[in-house]
UniProtKB/TrEMBL annotation:
It comes from the Bacteria. Pfam families: DUF938 (PF06080). InterPro entries: DUF938, SAM-dependent_MTases_sf. SUPFAM superfamilies: S-adenosyl-L-methionine-dependent methyltransferases (SSF53335). Signal peptide: none annotated. This is DUF938 domain-containing protein.
Length: 218
Protein backbone atom coordinates (compact mmCIF):
# COMPACT_ATOMS: atom_id res chain seq x y z
CA UNK A 1 0.00 0.00 0.00
CA UNK A 2 1.34 3.40 -0.93
CA UNK A 3 2.30 5.59 1.98
CA UNK A 4 -0.09 8.43 2.67
CA UNK A 5 1.38 11.77 1.74
CA UNK A 6 1.51 14.42 4.40
CA UNK A 7 1.46 18.12 3.73
CA UNK A 8 4.69 19.64 4.90
CA UNK A 9 4.41 22.10 7.73
CA UNK A 10 6.16 25.48 7.48
CA UNK A 11 9.59 25.32 9.11
CA UNK A 12 9.72 27.18 12.40
CA UNK A 13 12.47 29.76 12.62
CA UNK A 14 14.60 30.24 15.67
CA UNK A 15 13.12 32.77 18.08
CA UNK A 16 15.87 35.35 17.58
CA UNK A 17 15.69 35.06 13.79
CA UNK A 18 11.89 35.35 13.74
CA UNK A 19 11.94 38.41 16.00
CA UNK A 20 14.53 40.06 13.77
CA UNK A 21 12.54 39.51 10.58
CA UNK A 22 9.01 40.05 11.83
CA UNK A 23 7.52 43.47 11.28
CA UNK A 24 4.58 44.57 13.41
CA UNK A 25 1.82 47.07 12.67
CA UNK A 26 -0.43 47.90 15.66
CA UNK A 27 -3.24 48.85 13.26
CA UNK A 28 -3.19 45.32 11.86
CA UNK A 29 -3.82 43.93 15.34
CA UNK A 30 -6.87 46.17 15.63
CA UNK A 31 -8.39 45.65 12.19
CA UNK A 32 -7.71 41.95 11.51
CA UNK A 33 -10.85 40.56 13.12
CA UNK A 34 -13.31 43.21 11.84
CA UNK A 35 -11.97 42.64 8.31
CA UNK A 36 -12.18 38.86 8.73
CA UNK A 37 -15.84 39.14 9.74
CA UNK A 38 -16.60 41.06 6.55
CA UNK A 39 -14.51 38.74 4.36
CA UNK A 40 -16.60 35.81 5.58
CA UNK A 41 -19.54 37.28 3.68
CA UNK A 42 -17.78 37.36 0.31
CA UNK A 43 -15.00 34.77 0.12
CA UNK A 44 -15.80 31.38 -1.44
CA UNK A 45 -16.12 28.29 0.72
CA UNK A 46 -13.06 26.72 -0.88
CA UNK A 47 -10.28 27.77 -3.21
CA UNK A 48 -7.15 29.92 -3.31
CA UNK A 49 -7.17 33.53 -2.16
CA UNK A 50 -4.45 35.91 -3.35
CA UNK A 51 -3.64 38.70 -0.92
CA UNK A 52 -1.88 41.54 -2.76
CA UNK A 53 0.45 43.78 -0.71
CA UNK A 54 0.37 41.62 2.42
CA UNK A 55 2.69 43.97 4.31
CA UNK A 56 3.84 42.61 7.66
CA UNK A 57 2.06 39.26 7.25
CA UNK A 58 -0.19 39.69 10.30
CA UNK A 59 -3.36 39.73 8.20
CA UNK A 60 -2.31 36.63 6.28
CA UNK A 61 -1.87 34.60 9.46
CA UNK A 62 -5.19 35.79 10.94
CA UNK A 63 -7.11 35.03 7.74
CA UNK A 64 -5.48 31.63 7.22
CA UNK A 65 -6.54 30.69 10.74
CA UNK A 66 -10.04 32.09 10.26
CA UNK A 67 -10.66 30.39 6.89
CA UNK A 68 -9.16 26.94 7.27
CA UNK A 69 -10.80 25.56 4.10
CA UNK A 70 -9.15 28.24 1.97
CA UNK A 71 -5.57 28.33 0.69
CA UNK A 72 -4.15 31.77 1.52
CA UNK A 73 -1.47 33.11 -0.84
CA UNK A 74 0.26 36.25 0.50
CA UNK A 75 2.41 38.51 -1.69
CA UNK A 76 4.29 41.79 -1.67
CA UNK A 77 6.78 43.74 -3.78
CA UNK A 78 9.05 44.63 -0.84
CA UNK A 79 11.88 42.35 0.19
CA UNK A 80 11.54 43.35 3.85
CA UNK A 81 7.81 42.63 3.73
CA UNK A 82 8.38 39.22 2.14
CA UNK A 83 10.86 38.32 4.89
CA UNK A 84 8.39 39.46 7.56
CA UNK A 85 5.52 37.49 6.00
CA UNK A 86 7.69 34.38 5.85
CA UNK A 87 8.63 34.79 9.52
CA UNK A 88 5.00 35.19 10.62
CA UNK A 89 4.08 32.17 8.49
CA UNK A 90 6.82 30.00 9.99
CA UNK A 91 5.70 30.76 13.53
CA UNK A 92 2.01 30.28 12.71
CA UNK A 93 2.26 26.65 11.58
CA UNK A 94 -0.76 27.28 9.34
CA UNK A 95 -0.70 24.54 6.72
CA UNK A 96 -3.08 26.51 4.45
CA UNK A 97 -0.81 29.59 4.38
CA UNK A 98 1.56 29.49 1.41
CA UNK A 99 5.03 31.02 1.08
CA UNK A 100 4.80 34.69 0.03
CA UNK A 101 5.18 35.61 -3.63
CA UNK A 102 7.18 38.58 -4.92
CA UNK A 103 4.43 40.46 -6.76
CA UNK A 104 4.33 44.04 -8.00
CA UNK A 105 0.69 44.90 -8.67
CA UNK A 106 1.71 47.51 -11.25
CA UNK A 107 3.57 44.92 -13.33
CA UNK A 108 1.82 43.28 -16.31
CA UNK A 109 3.39 39.94 -15.33
CA UNK A 110 2.29 38.20 -12.13
CA UNK A 111 3.73 34.93 -10.75
CA UNK A 112 0.27 33.34 -10.49
CA UNK A 113 -2.27 32.40 -13.15
CA UNK A 114 -5.57 31.62 -11.43
CA UNK A 115 -7.14 32.27 -8.03
CA UNK A 116 -10.69 32.25 -6.67
CA UNK A 117 -10.66 35.66 -4.97
CA UNK A 118 -8.30 38.57 -4.30
CA UNK A 119 -7.88 40.73 -1.21
CA UNK A 120 -5.91 43.98 -1.03
CA UNK A 121 -5.60 45.85 2.26
CA UNK A 122 -4.18 49.35 2.70
CA UNK A 123 -2.37 49.53 -0.63
CA UNK A 124 -4.45 51.85 -2.80
CA UNK A 125 -3.59 55.02 -0.84
CA UNK A 126 0.09 54.12 -0.30
CA UNK A 127 0.96 53.66 -3.96
CA UNK A 128 0.69 55.48 -7.27
CA UNK A 129 -2.63 55.33 -9.18
CA UNK A 130 -0.95 53.08 -11.76
CA UNK A 131 -0.60 50.41 -9.08
CA UNK A 132 -4.37 50.28 -8.54
CA UNK A 133 -4.83 50.12 -12.30
CA UNK A 134 -2.44 47.17 -12.37
CA UNK A 135 -4.37 45.55 -9.52
CA UNK A 136 -7.63 45.59 -11.50
CA UNK A 137 -5.85 44.48 -14.67
CA UNK A 138 -4.34 41.55 -12.79
CA UNK A 139 -7.69 40.68 -11.23
CA UNK A 140 -9.21 40.68 -14.70
CA UNK A 141 -6.67 38.06 -15.79
CA UNK A 142 -6.85 35.83 -12.72
CA UNK A 143 -10.50 35.88 -11.66
CA UNK A 144 -13.51 34.21 -13.26
CA UNK A 145 -16.92 35.82 -13.64
CA UNK A 146 -18.49 36.45 -10.25
CA UNK A 147 -15.23 36.16 -8.30
CA UNK A 148 -14.50 39.00 -5.83
CA UNK A 149 -11.73 41.56 -5.59
CA UNK A 150 -11.95 43.05 -2.09
CA UNK A 151 -10.30 46.35 -1.11
CA UNK A 152 -9.92 47.83 2.36
CA UNK A 153 -8.65 51.18 3.55
CA UNK A 154 -9.53 54.87 3.91
CA UNK A 155 -11.19 56.58 0.94
CA UNK A 156 -12.91 59.82 0.03
CA UNK A 157 -16.57 59.43 -0.89
CA UNK A 158 -19.02 61.83 -2.47
CA UNK A 159 -21.80 62.71 -0.03
CA UNK A 160 -19.92 61.27 2.96
CA UNK A 161 -18.22 63.56 5.46
CA UNK A 162 -14.49 62.89 5.66
CA UNK A 163 -13.06 62.44 9.16
CA UNK A 164 -10.47 65.03 10.10
CA UNK A 165 -8.00 62.22 10.82
CA UNK A 166 -8.35 60.97 7.23
CA UNK A 167 -7.79 64.47 5.86
CA UNK A 168 -4.62 64.80 7.94
CA UNK A 169 -3.52 61.31 6.86
CA UNK A 170 -4.02 62.19 3.21
CA UNK A 171 -1.93 65.35 3.61
CA UNK A 172 0.87 63.41 5.31
CA UNK A 173 0.91 60.80 2.55
CA UNK A 174 1.10 63.41 -0.21
CA UNK A 175 3.92 65.15 1.65
CA UNK A 176 5.89 61.89 1.59
CA UNK A 177 5.11 61.10 -2.06
CA UNK A 178 3.05 63.27 -4.40
CA UNK A 179 1.62 60.17 -6.12
CA UNK A 180 0.19 58.79 -2.86
CA UNK A 181 -3.01 59.78 -1.10
CA UNK A 182 -6.56 58.71 -0.39
CA UNK A 183 -8.51 57.92 -3.56
CA UNK A 184 -12.11 58.75 -4.30
CA UNK A 185 -14.41 55.73 -4.30
CA UNK A 186 -15.96 57.09 -7.50
CA UNK A 187 -12.56 56.91 -9.20
CA UNK A 188 -12.09 53.31 -8.06
CA UNK A 189 -15.59 52.42 -9.29
CA UNK A 190 -14.82 53.93 -12.69
CA UNK A 191 -11.50 52.10 -12.88
CA UNK A 192 -13.21 48.85 -11.95
CA UNK A 193 -15.69 49.20 -14.80
CA UNK A 194 -12.80 49.57 -17.27
CA UNK A 195 -11.73 46.05 -16.33
CA UNK A 196 -15.26 44.57 -16.22
CA UNK A 197 -15.74 44.74 -12.46
CA UNK A 198 -18.77 46.15 -10.70
CA UNK A 199 -19.01 47.15 -7.05
CA UNK A 200 -21.25 44.69 -5.24
CA UNK A 201 -20.96 45.89 -1.66
CA UNK A 202 -19.61 48.57 0.66
CA UNK A 203 -19.08 48.06 4.38
CA UNK A 204 -18.15 50.61 7.03
CA UNK A 205 -15.38 49.47 9.35
CA UNK A 206 -13.76 50.99 12.46
CA UNK A 207 -11.31 53.89 12.38
CA UNK A 208 -12.92 55.52 9.32
CA UNK A 209 -12.02 52.71 6.93
CA UNK A 210 -14.29 50.97 4.45
CA UNK A 211 -14.36 47.67 2.63
CA UNK A 212 -15.27 47.61 -1.07
CA UNK A 213 -16.24 44.39 -2.83
CA UNK A 214 -15.97 44.24 -6.62
CA UNK A 215 -17.08 41.26 -8.67
CA UNK A 216 -16.04 40.40 -12.18
CA UNK A 217 -18.86 40.59 -14.69
CA UNK A 218 -19.59 37.79 -17.13
Amino acid sequence: MAARSRRARPRRRGTAEAIALKRHAPAADRNCLPIARELARDLPGRGTILEVASGTGQHAVTFARAFKRLIWQPSDCSGDALASIAAWRADSECTNLLSPLALDAASPEWPVEKVDAMVCINMVHISAPETTEGLFAGAGRLLAAGDPLILYGPFFEEGVDTASSNIAFDESLRARDASWGLRRVEWVDSLARRFSFIRARRAQLPANNILLVYRKEA
